[in-house]
Design brief:
338 residues; alpha/beta; Pyruvate-ferredoxin Oxidoreductase, domain 3; Alpha-Beta Plaits; seven-stranded mixed beta sheet; two-stranded antiparallel ribbon; 11 strands; globular; binds iron/sulfur cluster
C-alpha cells in the first residue's frame, strides 16, 4: 500500500517522545520491523537516550519510505507526520511539540479528552488522539505502556497491517508466555479505546517551528568553575517529568518509621525529620519534586507487602497510578511547601 503522505525527501516520519522505561525504543523498532521486514517499505529506526537510564527523557524516531527511496538521512525527525507523547509531563519541555504541523497526528497518553488535551498542550492544530495508556496497562498488569500506545498509533497508519503486530507481539514475548495475551489485549484496547478530534490551526496557539536547542551556558555566561550556585543537579530541580505514571502514596497510619524506603530511594525523596520531644527521626512523606516513580521504596517497605497483606489500606506505601492523585495536594517538600 502507498504511504499516505511523505515529506520532500520521500519519508513518512514518526517521532515518539517518551521516558526511559516506557518502551518507546522497542515500539519504534517494532513499527520499523513490520514496515520494512514484513511489508516491503524502506526505513530506519533509532533512538536518542540522553543519560540512558530509566526515568530520563527518550526520543525514538522511525522513517518509512517507498522501497525505491533509499534511506540516506540519519538525522533526528524535525517535522513528524505522527507524534506520540508517552507522558503529559513531557509537555513541560516546549521541544516536545516542535515541528508538529497542522496535518500531523498527535497521540497523547492521557485520561483527558481531546479538547482538554489540546488546551493543556497548547497545540496549534492537528489531529489529537487521546488514550489512557497508563490505566489500560495497569488494568492489564503490564509494566510499560508501549503496546497500548502502538495500538493507538497503528490506527492512524492503516498502511501497516494490524495482524502483523499481534504476530510480532507473540514472537517478541515468546519467552514470557504469561504476558503475551495481556500485551495483545493492551494493543487492541489502544486501537479501539482512543478518542480522536481534529483541530484547525485557528491561531489560538502558535506553531512551534523546529529549532536545535542552543546551550544555556557559553564562555560569556558560564558560572565560575567549582561554584555551585543552586543545590540540586538539574537546572529546574524537578524530576516529575521522569515519572512513568505510577507513584508511591504514603499512609502514615501504617508506617513504623524503619527507614528502609529511605535507604533504597535513589533520588533522596523520602523525608525524615527529628521529633523535638523524643529526639527520634520520623518519616514525614515523599518529596514528589524528585520522585521518578521507580517504586523501589514500595518493594523495600516491610509494611507494604501485597502478598502478605493484600489489603492496600494497611500498607505504608501504596503503589498507585499518579492520575488518581493531585500530587501537589500530597507533596511533602523539605523546602516549606505543603
Ligand atoms: S518511587 Fe520511591 S524509591 Fe523511587 S524515586 Fe520515588 S520515592 Fe524514591
Ligand atoms: S514507609 Fe515503610 S519502609 Fe518507609 S519508614 Fe515507613 S514502614 Fe519503613
Amino acid at each position: 500500500m502507498k504511504l499516505p503522505k511523505v515529506n520532500n525527501l520521500g519519508f513518512f516520519e514518526i517521532r515518539l517522545e517518551s521516558i526511559g522505561g516506557m518502551g518507546a525504543n522497542s515500539a519504534g523498532k517494532m513499527l520499523a520491523d513490520i514496515g520494512v521486514l514484513s511489508q516491503g517499505y524502506n526505513g530506519a529506526a533509532f533512538s536518542s537516550y540522553g543519560s540512558e537510564k530509566k526515568g530520563s527523557p527518550v526520543k525514538a524516531f522511525v522513517r518509512l519510505s517507498d522501497a525505491k527511496v533509499l534511506v540516506r538521512v540519519n538525522s533526528i525527525i524535525e517535522e513528524p507526520h505522527v507524534l506520540a507523547v508517552f507522558h503529559m509531563n513531557l509537555l513541560k519541555n516546549p521541544m516536545t511539540l516542535m515541528g508538529v504541523r497542522e496535518d500531523a497526528v498527535v497521540v497523547f497518553n492521557t485520561s483527558m479528552n481531546p479538547d482538554e488535551a489540546r488546551e493543556f498542550s497548547k497545540l496549534h492544530g492537528g489531529t489529537v488522539v487521546c488514550i489512557d495508556a497508563i490505566k489500560i496497562a495497569a488494568e492489564e498488569k503490564l509494566p510499560a505502556t508501549n503496546t497500548v500506545m502502538m495500538g493507538a498509533l497503528v490506527k492512524f497508519m492503516p498502511f501497516l497491517d494490524m495482524t502483523l503486530f499481534e504476530k510480532k507481539i507473540r514472537d517478541q514475548f515468546a519467552n514470557k508466555p504469561d504476558v503475551v495475551d495481556s500485551n495483545i489485549r493492551a494493543f487492541r484496547r489502544g486501537y479501539e479505546e482512543c478518542e480522536v478530534k481534529e483541530f484547525k490551526a485557528e491561531k489560538k496557539y502558535p506553531y512551534i517551528p523546529f529549532k536545535k536547542p542552543e546551550p544555556v551556558y557559553g564562555k560569556k555566561n558560564q558560572p565560575i568553575g567549582g561554584y555551585i550556585s543552586a543545590a540540586g543537579s538539574s537546572t529546574l530541580k524537578d524530576n516529575t517529568v521522569t515519572r512513568t505514571g505510577r507513584i508511591p502514596v504514603y499512609n502514615s497510619d501504617n508506617c513504623i518509621h524503619c527507614a528502609q524506603c529511605e535507604i533504597v530511594c535513589p533520588d533522596l525523596c523520602i523525608v525524615f525529620d527529628r521529633n523535638k520531644e523524643d529526639g527520634k527521626m520520623y518519616m514525614k512523606g515523599i518529596d514528589y519534586q524528585y520522585c521518578k516513580g521507580c517504586r523501589k521504596c514500595v518493594k523495600a517497605c516491610p509494611k507494604s507487602n501485597s502478598e502478605k497483606e493484600p489489603d492496600k489500606s494497611k500498607h505504608a506505601l501504596i503503589d498507585d497510578i499518579e492520575a488518581n492523585y493531585n500530587v501537589s495536594d500530597i507533596t511533602c517538600s523539605r523546602y516549606g511547601k505543603k
